[in-house]
Amino acid sequence: MTELDPQLIQKVRARFAYVDTCPFLGSRIFFENAGGALTLNSVVETSTKFAAIPDNQGRDNVASHGLVDTINKAKSDAADLFGASSGQFFVGESGTELLFRLVRNAATAAKAGGVILGSTIEHPATRSAAQHWAENTNRPYISIPHDNETGLSRAEDYAKYVTPDTRVACILHASPVTGMGMDVAAIAAAIRAVSPECYIVVDGVQNAAHGT
């Protein structure tokens, strides 16, 4: 492993709020990877700046127009960051809330009937959402056991359970519990081979921040 420059580490740490202190507990190092995330000081500053502006976007005044311009630039910057040439960006209170909305949209947009499936390794963001919307759309929820030895859900695990009438399938990209990354491309290919029209929802929350 390449040794990191201590000065560089200090510069990185200085960019984040509450790296080694807690406003409630006092001195501590934040390692609660599955239950939160450190926030850049620049994000805190920007959020404070815009939270103070009383105007809403979408109104016909100079301030509102300025806010809309800021939102549009942010979406354009996000597209550059993710290398996306099409599609949409939308925001919510948390990754869990956004995934719940995506699963809901997939379940309600899919052709009636069939099944919804997911793996036991998933975060509740997709697993609970899939179970909820399977019940609400009168579909069975199929639970795919993950491999305890490796801490993974693999393409071959999904292949055992995917059927032509699989309407929605959820995949966890990286687990905050086991620390393991799933082969999303292989799992998606296994699903598509049997159910080409299946909606696939990928939980990339942990991998986006920590994966490669």
Commentary on this structure:
By secondary structure, this protein is of the alpha/beta class. It folds into three domains: 1-52, no CATH class; 54-89, no CATH class; 95-210, Aspartate Aminotransferase, domain 2, CATH 3.40.640.10. Helices cover 43% and strands 12% of the residues. The chain contains eight helices and six strands; from the N terminus they run αββαααβαβαβαβα. It has helices at 6-14, 41-51, 62-82, 95-109, 124-136, 155-159, 184-194, 205-210, and strands at residues 21-22, 26-27, 115-119, 141-144, 166-172, 199-203. The strands form two sheets. It has a four-stranded parallel beta sheet, with helices on both faces. Strands 1-2 form a two-stranded antiparallel sheet. Helix 4 packs parallel to helix 5 (124-136). It is globular and about 50 Å long. It starts with 5 loop residues before the first helix and ends with a helix. 22% of the residues are buried. The model has no long low-confidence stretch (mean pLDDT 92).
Task: Give a quick rundown of the structure.
By secondary structure, the chain is an alpha/beta fold.
List keywords for this structure.
212 residues; alpha/beta; Aspartate Aminotransferase, domain 2; 3 domains; four-stranded parallel β-sheet; 8 helices; 43% helix; 12% strand; globular
